[in-house]
Description:
The chain is α+β, with helices and mostly antiparallel strands. The chain contains two helices and 20 strands. The protein folds into two domains: 106 residues, Immunoglobulin-like (Sandwich), CATH 2.60.40; 103 residues, Immunoglobulin-like (Sandwich). The strands form five sheets. Strands 2-11-10-5-6-7 form a six-stranded mixed beta sheet, with no helix packed on it. A hairpin with a 6-residue loop joins strand 19 and strand 20. It is rod-shaped. About 8% of the residues have low confidence. InterPro entries: Ig-like_dom, Ig-like_dom_sf, Ig-like_fold, Ig_I-set, Ig_sub, Ig_sub2, Zig-8.
Amino acid sequence: MSPLFxxxxxxxxxxxxxxxxxxxxxxxxxxxxxxxxxxxTPDPATLPYFLHHLNATNVTVSRxxxxxxxxxxxxxxxxxxxxxxxxxxxxxLLTIGSSTYQNNGRYQLEVEEPNTWxxxxxxxxxxxxxxxxxxxxxxxxxIKRVHLQVYVPRxxxxxxxxxxxxEKFYEVGSSIDLRCDAFHVPRDAVVWSRGGAVVYHxxxxxISVETTSGAQGPVSWLRVKAASTADSxxxxxxxxxxxxxxxxxxxxxxxxxxxxxxSTNSSxxxxxxxxxxxxxxxxxxxxxxxxxxxx
Length: 295
């Protein structure tokens, strides 16, 4: 056998061995493959939800009253309920589970099984205004937003011309007309008094007290017909939980009343004149500065 034939035979044998014909093919380790289970989507029928499916509510309360923020959760199961207060980008944790995380005692948690988690802000102040959230530790988390508005009751007295007053002069025989605008107080809560004594509606004595409903609260009128010097004094309009508004009324004889009224008007006119003069000077200085810059 020639050497060339031997080489050819050896090549054929190698090819047959590699193809697996007439022999065993070499084993190859194939890496094992694992199949991740597809992500599961929570069944909506198992997720918690809030009462009436409301995710946002508003609560309004007067200053000094308790603000009650309700959160009723259904299908809670083993999940946790938390209350937080959101102020801009910061979040303040108030409660988690049945624990309260504030030491000032103004935030209280009331839990009524099986689904009520109530946050109570005692003696609400203006600083308590803002957004609160009831959060449920589900996936995705459930959040109910509550906006708390705290109103401050306020009273202000005006004369018949609609000008806010703290003192007013009347001539003997004229009519005293005072109007009290009450903001965020009940209609029946407004009371007029003079020198600490309540003033009642008494048409037979020429005193009239009438209260109507205004845009932001009650409007109460006090009218005294044919006023005399005995009607002078401090008149106050008051209501529960509001600072009283007081005006000093002076009923004077004709000449004295005119002189006092003229003095008051002259003082007001002088004040307005001074204010106008200052404004004029400021405008002239501004104009001079502009001209100087242009030059």
